[in-house]
Give the backbone structure.
Amino acid sequence: MAERSAVPGARVEGPVRFESLDPELAGPDGAATLVGTARPRLSWRIKSRVPGWSQQRAEVRAVDERGTVAVAGLAGADQVLMAWPFADLRSRQRVSVSVRVFGADRWSRWSRVSVVEAGLLEPADWTAAWITPVAGADLPDPAPVLERDVEVADGLLRARLYISALGIFVAMVNGTRVGNEHFAPGWTSYDREVGYRTYDLTALLRPGTNVMEALLGNGWYRGRIASFGLHRGRPYGERLALLAQLELTYRDGRRVVLGTDESWHTGPSRVLADDYYDGQTTDLTWPDRAGRSGAVERVSVGPPAVTAPVAPPVRELETLAAIKVWPAPAGGMLVDFGRNVVGWVRLSVRGSLGGQVTVRHAEVLEHGELSVRPLRSAQATDRYVLAGGATELLEPSLTFHGFRYAEITGITDLEPADVVAVVLGSDLHRTGTFVTSSKMLNRLHANVVTSMRGNFLDIPTDCPARDERLGWCGDTQVFAPTATALADVAGFLSSWLHTLAGDQLADGTVPVVVPRVFSTETPAAGWGDAAVIVPWVLYQRYGDTGVLERQYASMRAWVERVAELAGPALLWAGGPQLGDWLDPLAPPDAPSRARADPDVVATAHFARSTDLLARTAGVLGHLGDLQRYRELAERIRRAFTAAYVAPDGTIRSDCQTVYSLALHWDLLPYGDLRARAGRRLVELVRARGHTVTTGFLGTPVILDALTSVGAVADAYAMVNCRTFPSWLYAVDLGATSIWERWDSLRPDGSVHPDEMTSFNHYAFGAVADWMHRTIGGLAPTAPGYRQVRIAPVLGGGVTSAAVSHLSPYGRIAVSWRIRSGRFVMRLEIPVGVTATVALPDGTERAGVGHGRHELSCPVVRSSGSRTRPPGRLRQAVMTAPGDPAGPVASAPTTTPVNPPVTSVDR
Ligand code: BGC
């Protein structure tokens, strides 16, 4: 076949991506993605104006630093997470990669070049030793600084710093902070593994003597974060430690490696105390570099494995100006930053030597003061002793707080311009947007985004303010689909899953909190199921079979553990459960005493996880397991129905959550039980005036359950409900984040009296995924959004909506509006994605390819105005290529294909 080249037809858009990491290393060598693997996977996005264009094959070109070129051909249409087609990367190797694609009889141009740089891949690459101060760096002592002079000769070509800590580090070279991340190297189960970071120091070092310093904070390693359970009063370790390896490469080829060893010195820093819960105390009068003659020694016992990160680092994400500053009743000034965020307060002050400034934080005000009761024992207080003289910039570096308000004492003339809130969080690339004609729904959605940002800080946590901030698995499990709809969390959640698998007990029990901190663990439905559900969600949303491969043993171990607990009856019954946690009808001080029978909830989860494990086995080609778990899932569903579902369709405990789980997970595939359950759910929802009476496990699925049985009007009435308990109740009370309890703030403005009351807890925000899929109408139906179903469901008075998603293939955008009796929808679909589009009049078109499209139809009547009990509304159903288990929830109703649809390709 004649191959014409470089003629526009398609082009590779933007850089080739490695794994899911953005470029991380910026320096004189240019931006590079740092990887901790010898075989980074490659993805690229394609633009084409040619209708029907598809990639038939691709070529990847790699150029190493010596200029050696390698080209690999890849057959077929795949463009996401492609296996590395070259020889394994060696430690430190840098390769420039570009891609071109062939389709419609011609090659595209070569893409922009992206650089990948391998980190230290082998343990033997580390010649540095873990070091710790011999004395003076115990918990009550100031945070230690470790330092050494570094001689640099002329002719430096490249400098790399590989660095890790037991604790958290802030590295400096000649007084300049290295990198822009916080709380490195993050939170892992340190007895097993700790991360390291790589920095390009070429521009920071100068010929002659340079000073390398690392400040060590307690972080998660020695701080109070693990102050109950496994590490009560006995954190991961008593002594902080540093591992740093500076590698200098000169133009003449010489390489000098300077690792941490006994030649380093240590002394106290200005940080007198630091703790995530309690805050930081900084004495600015302490002279720079004073008293640093203390000796260091090697850490003697078993340091953990040191690995490169797969998640993006924590960075400063934005700053918020103060929207109001006013005198606090008890003295000092109160500041409102307008949004409940996570980070710290940055102040600019002019004070006198020895002056003291104190900053306290809270998420809400009560009786005109900071409401600190919800923080429980966390002091959340930053203190400064001023050096006086010039304007001083005050901000901590080794702590973070969850707050909207701050109380500042010690400054008499505080102006709004002197203070900002610095928002910190994992620097996740935002991929999903959503907006509608409803201000209330938009606010709700924005609050979900805020709570995700606030709690996706190195690991996914329950809440960021009180003395907890733990990786509660149930919260992450229910929120994972929403997280993937909002941001690229592929690396972030894979990294957490890696820790989960490592923390799993030998018998398969998944700790309720990961990284594990509790000394005893009991399997908990919904929490342990994170082991299966989260990898499946990542596979669905990113098309990554790698995460399934890596997690498979963990997924299987969890299902086997539950099978053992359930016994031959296949009912997971009895034993402690967290259950449908925080059901608003449960006693406020006993959140696990939900209306939903915990046995019903547990067996529903057992069926769900077994079903997903079967599908995973199918994807991975484990045919024996596929057979075994498919049959097991079917038998669990039968056992569930026999034990818990009455012939009239009533499910034991007869509440919103049990019907929602049974419907959404298709546990009732027999006879007309499904229709009956649907009717009963609708009755229950109506009987409560469309308020929500579900907890953590029922809330994420109830609107899907209602939608799936055609009760669209009820789903909309629920999401639009403003009476307590409901999502918009909180919005009406001015919430700027998602609350832990439906009534964290009570109608009279008082804070819920129970000690477990946070204002930044994303679990109930799991509704946002439904909003994207149902209101916006964009849902993936094949892994990685390779196929999508675009089917906005009208209702709730919403007259327009726009949803977009940056999929692995490129941006998919849907925007629709109702105007003059017509529904008009615009679509943007990237190369590689195929859509089935359904319009509100029931018409449907399959095989819609890339490009921009406009479709319209008359709006007959809101499809949300009636319930369709017997059938199910056609919803997006995920199928996986090579997934013989197939979708459980199939059997869509057929609709006539498309007469009034118009499509305009541009
Ligand atoms: C956390 C929750 C968590 C729950 C389970 C709470 O303290 O904040 O989000 O899932 O405990 O017990």
Q: What stands out?
A: Residues 462-463, 468, 472, 474-475, 578, 581, 756, 761 surround beta-D-glucopyranose (CB under 6 Å).
